[in-house]
Automatic annotation (TrEMBL), chain A:
Similarity annotation: Belongs to the cytochrome c oxidase subunit 3 family.
Source organism: Chelatococcus composti
Repeat listed as a keyword: no
Role played: Cytochrome bo(3) ubiquinol terminal oxidase is the component of the aerobic respiratory chain of E.coli that predominates when cells are grown at high aeration. Has proton pump activity across the membrane in addition to electron transfer, pumping 2 protons/electron.
Annotated Heme-copper oxidase subunit III family profile domain residues: 41-238
Protein known as: Cytochrome bo(3) ubiquinol oxidase subunit 3
Residues passing through the membrane, by range: 39-62, 88-109, 121-140, 160-187, 217-237
Length: 238, 117
């Protein structure tokens, strides 16, 4: 590294807004202490935020502007369990499953940085299993609703846009979870093989494998959980 | 290359410093907050109380996930602001579309009612 850069680093401002100005005016890289892969994942997640944001805005506009009554999600997603009528129970279980998967993911990242190879891989596989369970329950929910006559252009209970908003939003989210499960299994395989202990380069790149890959994977997975928090609040509870 | 190695080492320490207990506590909180949101529906709360509670629990959960699970609380401010500031555009979009949808609703009321309203 050239001396100018090291000199620059030594006179870092105290913090706050000055740090931001200093970082963004840097001649080499704006996001210091942040690796290329992690910065790119964050920027991808920001763009994905806009995608889900526009979906939810579209849903809001449809629901606010319709003169038909909106179907009551509490009853639409109710289930009879052991003779008891429980409103929204399946969605609540799905929420807990996804939150649990976020918990195991966070611990996988932590174990990764401690270089505990087996624990990291086991936690990643556990996360993948919970994610697959979530997708399975979503498939069940879709089957149930389609059986009851919900279509993107209509449903038996009220405003026709309910179906299109439901299939669009949960479908896109479910796709993200499915891709996440595949991503998790791919990273778990790398971990168990010891790629990140020996710095083995990936298939598409000459860069040496590092445990940071687990953290970057984690960012994606937590984002999927984060999106569900908003879907749960706005689509199911509102 | 040495720069990357240095960054890695710096990050290594930061992440390592978190005990696993922190994640378990956040996990427990997310469970509790989700249970509270479910109870809002279970007890059929309505009106302003319902919407306030839903939004409060939602924001608390989102904040915990982003700050702790996604490690944003320990990232440099330049990255934090680069990610969080653009979210303001979504909020502006929400406001614009809410006004628009309200207008559409009123026009529909006027036209679909056969001029009776």
């Amino acid at each position: 590294m050239d001396t100018a850069f090291t000199e620059h680093r030594t006179r870092e401002p105290a913090g706050g807004l000055a740090t931001i100005v200093d970082d963004f005016s840097a001649d080499q890289r704006a996001f210091r202490n942040v690796s290329w892969g992690k910065a790119m994942m964050w920027i991808f997640l920001l763009s994905d935020t806009f995608i889900f944001g526009t979906f939810l805005i579209g849903y809001m506009a449809a629901r606010m502007s319709t003169t038909e009554p909106w179907p009551n999600a509490s009853e639409v997603f109710a289930l009879e369990i052991a003779g008891r009528h429980l409103p929204l129970i399946l969605i609540a279980i799905m929420t807990f499953v996804l939150i649990s998967s976020s918990g195991t993911m966070a611990m996988a990242v932590n174990c990764g940085y401690r270089r505990q190879r087996r624990a990291t891989a086991a936690l990643l596989v556990a996360t993948a299993i919970l994610g697959a369970t979530f997708v399975g329950m979503q498939a069940f929910e879709w089957t149930k609703l389609i059986g009851e006559g919900v279509r993107p252009w209509g449903n038996p209970w009220g405003a026709a846009q309910f179906g299109s908003a439901f299939f669009m939003i949960t479908g896109f989210h479910g796709t993200h979870v499915t891709i996440g499960v595949i991503f998790l299994l791919a990273i778990a395989r790398k971990v168990i093989r010891g790629d990140f202990d020996h710095g083995r380069p990936g298939f598409f790149t000459g860069r040496r494998g590092r445990y940071e890959a687990v953290e970057i994977m984690g960012l994606y997975w937590h984002f999927v959980d984060l999106v569900w928090v908003f879907i749960f609040a706005f689509f199911y509870l509102w | 290359m040495s720069e990357i190695a240095h960054n890695d080492a710096a990050h290594h320490i930061v992440v390592k410093a978190h005990p696993i207990r922190l994640y378990l506590v956040v996990w427990a909180w997310l469970f509790v907050l989700s249970a509270f949101s479910y109870l809002v529906d279970y007890f059929h709360l309505t009106g302003a109380l319902r919407y306030t509670l839903i939004l409060t629990f939602m924001m608390l959960k989102a904040g915990l996930i982003v700050a702790v699970f996604m490690h944003m609380a320990w990232e440099r401010l330049a990255l934090v602001y680069a990610i969080l500031v653009p979210i303001g555009a979504i909020l502006a979009f929400v406001a614009a579309m809410a006004v628009e949808a309200d207008y559409t609703f009123l026009t529909r009321l006027a036209f679909f009612s056969g001029g009776q309203s």
